[in-house]
């Protein structure tokens, strides 16, 4: 057996990001009125992948007493930051999977979702339910029959002269008010 080979991976190498839509289990249920209930189940593999990435990031920069920076054992990292990492990962997955689901199912939410976490047990899938209200769908009928006349507006030389005169009057008032302010300052000063 030979020596293990170390490989350096470029930081620009493509990485697997997010969860694939086909991994998610999505159920959309129509509710009363414009409400829809979306039940999303995120597979354990996606959760574990994100947790592993986050623990790796923390391990590179963690500074704990008795250890050099970046040399803290994984077990201690998991004990110290485990709950925080799980909370971050679940929050991130909730946001990203909700957005993916809305895009995939072509839903148009009228506001933020009302989210209820159905279940999360470490080592199992993460499931939640988002209740949203969507914009109503309607079709306009008879638009072909409606005709709209575009009014013709003709601007003549008389209109142009009137506008120029108004502008001259308004700027004349500004000049006279500036002069008045300067005179008052010189008298007061």
Which characteristics define this entry?
189 residues; alpha+beta; Alpha-Beta Plaits; 2 domains; four-stranded antiparallel sheet; 3 helices; flat
CATH architecture of the largest domain: 2-Layer Sandwich
N-end to C-end Cα span: 96 Å
Unreliable stretches (pLDDT < 50, length at least 5) are: 12-19
CATH fold annotation of the largest domain:
Alpha-Beta Plaits
CATH class of the largest domain: Alpha Beta
Q: How are the strands of the biggest sheet laid out side by side?
A: 1-2-4-3
If you had to describe this structure to a student in words, what would you say it looks like?
Strand 1 (about 25-30) and strand 2 form a beta hairpin. The longest helix has about 30 residues, at about 155-189. By secondary structure, the chain is an alpha+beta fold. The protein has a four-stranded antiparallel beta sheet with strand order 1-2-4-3. It contains three helices and four strands. The radius of gyration is 33 Å and the shape is flat.
Summarize the structure.
With 189 residues, this protein is α+β, with helices and mostly antiparallel strands. The chain contains 3 helices and 4 strands. It folds into 2 domains: 21-133, Trigger factor ribosome-binding domain (Alpha-Beta Plaits, 2-Layer Sandwich), CATH 3.30.70; 157-189.
